[in-house]
Amino acid sequence: MSNYETYLTLGVAIQLASFFLLMLFGPRLGKPWAGWVAVAAMASACGLATITLVGWMGEIENGTAAALTAAAAHNQFHWADIGKMPVNIGVKLDSLTVIMYFMVTFIATWIFVFSVGYMAGHSDEVAGKSKFHRFFCYLSLFAFSMLGLVISSNLLFLFIFWELVGLCSYLLIGFYFDKKFASDAAMKAFITNRVGDFGFIFGLMMVFFFLGTLDLDGAARVFADQFHSQAGIFGREYDINLLGWHVSSVSGTTLATMMGIGLFCGAMGKSAQFPLQVWLPDAMAGPTPVSALIHAATMVAAGVYLVARVFRLLTPEAQMFIAAVGCITLTAMALIAIVQTDIKKCLAYSTLSQLGYMVFAMGCGAWIAALFHLMTHAFFKAMMFLGSGQVIEGCHHEQDMRKMGGLMRKMPVTGFTFLIGVLAISGFGIPKTDIGLGGFFSKDEILAVAWDRAYMWDEPIEDHGGHHADIASASAFQLVSFSPDQEHGDHGGGHDEGRDTHTESAGEHGDAHAAHGPVIEQPHGKAAIMAGVSALPRWMFWCALITAYVTPFYMMRCWWLTFMGKPRDQHVHDHAHESPMMWFPLVVLAVFTFVCSYAIFRPLIADAAVVASDAVMVVGLDGVAVPSNDPVARSEAAGAFIHLHEAHDFLAYAVGGSWLISFIVAFLIYRNGLEVGAKLKSAFGPIATLLERKYYFDEIYGFFLVMGCRAVAQVCRAFDTYFVDMLANLSAKITERFAAFSGRAVDAYVVDGVFNGIAATSMDVSDVFRSPQTGRIRNYVLFATGGAAIVILVLLFIDGSSGPGVVLGASGGG
Amino acid sequence: MKTLMRYDKTILAGLLLAAMACCSASAVAQDYPDPKERPERVVEGEAVPQDAYRSEVTPVVESVLFYIFGGALLLSAVGLCICRDVVRMATCLFFTLGSAAVLYLLLGAFFLGAIQLIVYAGGTLILLVFGVMLTNKSPWVRFDCKPAEMIAAAGVAIVLFFGLATMLTTTEWAQSTGEARSTTVAQFGKALLTTYLVPFEVASVMLLVVMIAAAYMARQE
Amino acid sequence: MTQMSVPWRPRGKVRYTGLSGLIAGFARAIYGMAAPVVRAFPGSILLGAIFTVILVGWAHFLLFEFADNHLIGADSNISAVRGFLGAELTLAEIENGLAVAGAPAPGVLQYAFYPIQFRIVRDLLSAGGILGFISVIPLYTIWWERKVAGRIQSRTGPMRVGGWHGWSQSMADGIKLINKEDFVPDHADGVLFRLAPYVAFVPAILAFFALPFGTYWVFRELDVALVFILAMLGIEVLGVILAGWASNNKWSVYGAMREACQMVSYEIPMGMALLIPVMAVGTLSMTEIGNVQGDGWTSWIVFRNPFTFAAAVVYYVAALASCKRAPFDLPESESELVSGFHTEYSGFRWSLFFFGEYAAMFVVSGLCVILFLGAWHSPLPMSLADRFLGDDLLSRAAKGLFFSGPLWFVLKCVWLLYVQIWIRWTLPRIRIDQVLYACIQYMLPLMMVILLGHTLYELLVPVHGIVWTFFNIALSVIGGAVMLFLVSIACYGYLNRVKLVGWLGVETLPGS
Amino acid sequence: MFIVGLTHYLILAAVLFCCGVFVMMTKRNAIGILMGVELVLNSVNVNFVAFDRYRPGGGFDGQIAALFVIVLAAAEAAVAVAICMNVYKNLNTIDVDRGDALHG
């Protein structure tokens, strides 16, 4: 085990220890100290993560990182066997894990600090029992689960931790469980997640049965093998041909597509993608730090992380499905955010929209950009949520933005840090330069890839949906007839060439790469794969692009309504204040929003992408938008896409300018308060209502699912009452009658007679035998002594001829 | 003289006890002939020269003491048989055990005699008295068995004694002609930690078990 | 003032009859002889009595030694085999030996020396000496205790009987007690009731037979002396229990039960504390344990290492409890149990209990002195004596006075007795559950730790190494300083007694 | 006959043994029975020590055996007294005849 694995595992274990400590001794630790225990645990994990991060960057510089990754993949603990399949526990040690781990621990640390201040001001008693320590207890459990999820190298363990974070989310949303809306929201979140997890389990079962391993790398390897041999999951016998309509455009990939979609279902639940997005806004019922940590920064991003991890198991159709879901989510949710008045809800919908962006990016193949967006988003969204928490706390639990305004003077730090977050999420930056904040780079890149997929595809398929069987089969033919050997040179060469740009010693790296070949056992040609990947429908690109304009608008609206303008509620305004323990984390996170926009993350993600997105059927297409240290040559290796960035000039201005235009619009509308907004709302009428009611999703679910469930339950109940009970009662009556007969006739005469007879006989016999057994010790002693006396007398007189002459002990001379 | 008469029994008993005390002390006769000739303290269980510790108890003195304390022992043992009251029985037992301790001293087992006194007389007896004290509220403090049982028991005991006595007197025992060997504590300790180590350890473990068991059984619910 | 107005000398003559008249006459004669001496040397009655006893013992010793060396012959070993009836020296031989030795008064002394050759005679003589000592010790300790109690309570204590500070008060009490009615309560167990005082008293005497007062000052040199004395102290309790049970009185039974509990509990830490010096020296023989402490006060076992120091303290507390002295005097607490186990006793039997108790107090103090506090050695090292003193009579006397001898032993014992009295009249009595918890919950675990610590210390710390020497010297210095401090406080208190306790009118009382 | 030898001790021990057995046979008091057991054990001890004293040759095995007997007897007494106390707690008496709950 290398040091890094140890550090990461230790960090996870510390959280578990902290959880148990707080669970057992939390009440004794008392109000501030329970919180500080959790903070200490988290901070130590953060320290370990920092050490790992710095060391890992050094390893990459030295070119030894890949060796460590492979070593970690080999160095696994055999936990159990499922059938013949071994289940191993191990640490997935690569750049993605390292940065995710760092991100989670870092953000969590500062949110924990914030929480100590936040919870100090909240009543923390339910029925006389303090909930303070329980809050940190749950937070520690969450940290344990999340970090475990990040470092899991096995899908099974990933799933276990996946469920654990779901549990923590449930517990924390329902933290104020004495309030109805909180407990309802918790249940809603949990049940909605169950729906997604059902799909996830489905996908896992397919991985288990067809790929035969739950190890991430192993599954990818088997997936590639089966693709090349057209066996297993790619068997043609599994094709679903429904009246001429193929589920998959490429023949033989139906089950693989189903598997990818199944795995993605989990991500849909956790990352609240359409149509399972309904739980996330309600999850804002939990304490604000929870919203910041779990429902903005880390847990909801786990869906994206999962997709990134199983990227190698996706098929083009599954990828397209992912893109479609992401696209719908990002657009629809951004529109809802415009009309929200609750500051937390507004941020929640913005989170949904951004998650949709990430998922969409994954679907497009913008692997690096999606994760980069995840990282930056985590920082600034956590910061904004904490800022909103600060505002809510300072304004005496007022969440309605319409009652705020002019808080900048009362809370300058919060206001400025919030503004930084708004700028970051809006993609603030200057086009064609390297000046900008997080969202600027990531959205730019996502949209660039989407543009490429939509317009620059060599063989664009306008009508997506797989209706053209001939084209599909042609693509499939291209894929299956593709010769690995021939392409190996090209592909390998391309890879090495690409790596030359960001690694010091290509040869060494290549050797290392060859030495632990199992990571990519079957190299494949990018070009061939891309031939199988269909083009992106153009509406998706345009949806995403429009949303890029919507996002700055509602964020600016949110910020302006909250912090600028005139105070609209004097009571709230008077009460507003900020406390150091709460704004200090904001500042730290703001600083890191800057830092992570440029340094650290981007190169590491790019490094991770080399292996993690190296799939047999789909492609990671990006990696060019960042000027340094990224494998540009990865896309160059696929020769057809060298022209990919020709449109980038247009896009750079279209995306890069969006923030300015939208900010101006928002400023104009909300400059003088709410009047203009209200007029616009009445002007749009039904559309505004539709958005305010969130497209009536809750009502639809309520009607179809809840009512449906109830109807089914009624039927079942009737069946239970009339049929099952009837059967049970009938059998009981029959048994009763039979027992009555047997009791009277058989038991009383036959059985009892036999046993009484035996008992009476043995009693008579034992009465005779037990008469000397008086139960008195002295009588027994009397008998024993009398016996001894008789024996002695017998020895003396009967055998007296030889008795007296015996010399005892005569030989005892030593 | 009236006062003297009143106290005669008391004073006589006191004198008798004092005399017993003196005699028992002289039975412990063990002296160094001269302090300058005192042997070095026994280290590492070296064999002690037999003449370094000489008993001053001549056979005649030993016999006299044996008859005195043997008689006391028998008397108190018979008293134990006869007494009905438990505390009187305990007193008799005490004198029996004390006399037995003096007999050990006579036989040269000084350490054993002292141990007998401290363990039996000091410990066992106090335990017994404890038991008596804790149970003397009972209305059945004096309960006798049936006369028939008594007679049968006496008969069996007498027959057993005569059988044993006959056997013991008719057996020729191999005897040493030497004097009583006094055993020093150092020899005892050495033997316990070498030859008899296993029984010693077993006994210690058993004592622990007994301690726990007794505490457990006598605990308050 | 009422006390002042009562004349201290009875007006008329009290008539004593029978044995009491005899005893009274005897006492009067003693008083008549002692009074002038006492008036001439006030302030040392107790020491005088002790000196007397020691002189008797010394005389015995000289006598035996003379007989051994000059009559029987040092080289003949004949004393060792001298038996009960096996007389080997005739009167003529003795006379001859005396003449050779140059003894005075020829023709008379052989009759005195003839019995001495028999061991039994010597033993009886020695036993008589010890019995005398045991009688003297309680008498004067009781008187002394009453004086100390008086001083502590700003009273005067006994002042009348005997003259100087009521010094013969105890003897008068004894005479009174002997004259009291011999009384056995109804429904009491008469036999056990009569037997109990002896069972309580005799073991105390037996304990003295193994307690060495000096290197050769011991009735019987026992290899297992320590175990023997412990056993005797344990048997003493039996008398108390019998007394309590036989009295047919529930308070007495309570007292007896308390005594049994207390003794059984405190025997354990006491025995463990006594193991510490045994382990340090490696023998159960008290004489040998005493002899290794002759090299000045730094060689006393109490200052050997921190664990022995702690063990000495624990031992002393446990010893207080085992001879039922305050604050552990639950068995005889007057306020709750109406004097506990001796409620029904009076007269001579009652006094026997107290003889036993005060003798036991002396024995436990003696054990503490021998095992911890340097036995019969003075704080000066014996090597000093060997360097400066010869072997003549005067030098030996000086040795006995300044370096090593029974006097020092008795002095130390008396000091410890004084501490016992001091504690009794200073501390309140504690409850029985507190007594038992103090033993089981604190002293027993503490003693276990000390035992283990001492064992490890003896095993691991090199003798006379740096650590050893440091602790030895530090403890010695601290202990010596404490002792000096206490002595100086006592001197200061005595010299300024009027200022400190107020005017008691002591000087105006008769007998002062 | 006046001068004591091994036989004297053995006879003495035999008497002690018979007394102990007699006590065990006639007492209904549990503590009394325990005392009888102690007597028997002591007679054994006297035998051990006497044999040890009069045995030809060195060693002191008899004394060691007696020592162990003493230790075991003390342990046995402790447990027995605890049992007696329990019996008393349950039956309010230590009459062994009344402890007949298991007697049919």
Briefly, what is this?
The complex is a heterotetramer of chains A (814), B (221), C (512) and D (104). By secondary structure, chain A is mainly α.
Structural class estimated from helices and strands of chain A: mainly alpha
Query: Could you tell me how far the N terminus lies from the C terminus of chain C, measured between alpha carbons in angstroms?
Result: 17 Å
Q: What is the average per-residue confidence, as pLDDT of chain C, rounded to a whole number?
A: 77
Structural class of chain C: mainly alpha
The helix-strand sequence of chain C is HHHHHHHHHHHHHHHHHHHHH
Low-pLDDT stretches of chain A are 459-524, 623-645, 803-814
- Gyration radius of chain A, in Å: 36 Å
| Helical proportion of chain C, percent range | 55-70%
Give, in spatial order, the strands making up the sheet with the most strands of chain A.
Answer: 1-2
The overall strand count of chain A is: 7
Helix content of chain A: over 70%
Number of helices of chain C: 21
Number of domains of chain C: 3
What's the overall average pLDDT of chain A, rounded?
78
Largest sheet of chain A: 2 strands, antiparallel
Oligomer: heterotetramer
Low-confidence stretches of chain C: 1-8, 74-87
Number-wise, the strands of chain C total 0
Number of helices of chain A: 32
Task: Using the CA coordinates, give the radius of gyration of chain C.
Answer: 25 Å
